[in-house]
Specification:
Strands 1, 2, 3, 4, 5, 6, 7, 8 and 9 form a 9-stranded mixed β-sheet that branches. The model has no long low-confidence stretch (mean pLDDT 85). The chain is 17% helix and 44% strand. The two termini are 25 Å apart.
């Protein structure tokens, strides 16, 4: 399973997503910045911060960043796509910009009502807006843990995710 870290930038009740070309289904998707946790990353948060800087020029503000969710996508028929994703939400320094060389195009900010769920991965579209809504009502909302099992590109099962082994610390302290 590949571990990935994603950073969802937030400013003034708006969330920034990029248009990114998916290599798996050749479709444009609206996604946050993020990528694979590397062996040189001291923590999952450090991986998310590094990926945000590389793909968008944004620098997450540590004291204003929270772990929002841990989501696993298990693909019965495409094991190479199995991912454990750590989703961080937070404020940032810099201006969101496109990075064509990273495949990150057309950054746009959305309110919860404007969130383009039809342009997101199906699993993300199911959980992201409700979890963000809960977080906006109560910022102390617990971390969301969920597993989605896919077969032939369709979610066939959704279940709670048990305790997640933290091979890397979430925060570097």
């Amino acid at each position: 399973m590949i571990t990935t870290a994603l950073f969802l930038p937030k400013r003034d009740a708006r969330y920034v997503l990029w248009n990114k070309h998916s290599t798996h289904d050749r479709v444009q998707r609206r996604l946050p910045v993020g990528g694979r946790v590397e062996a040189t990353d001291a923590s999952v948060f450090e991986a998310a911060a590094r990926e945000a800087q590389e793909e968008s020029g944004l620098t997450p503000i540590l004291v204003e960043t929270v772990l929002l969710a841990v989501v696993e996508n298990i693909h019965r028929d495409r094991v190479f796509m199995n991912r454990r994703m750590f989703w961080f939400l937070g404020m940032f320094h810099g201006l969101p910009r496109a990075y064509p060389e990273e495949g990150m195009l057309d950054p746009r900010a959305y309110t919860l009502r404007e969130m383009p769920v039809g342009e997101m991965w199906e699993a993300d579209a199911r959980w992201l807006v409700p979890v963000l809504s809960a977080y906006e009502r109560a910022p102390t909302t617990p971390v969301y843990y969920r597993r989605f099992t896919h077969e032939r590109g369709v979610i066939v099962q959704e279940s709670p995710l048990g305790p997640v082994p933290m091979l890397l610390p979430v925060f570097p302290f």
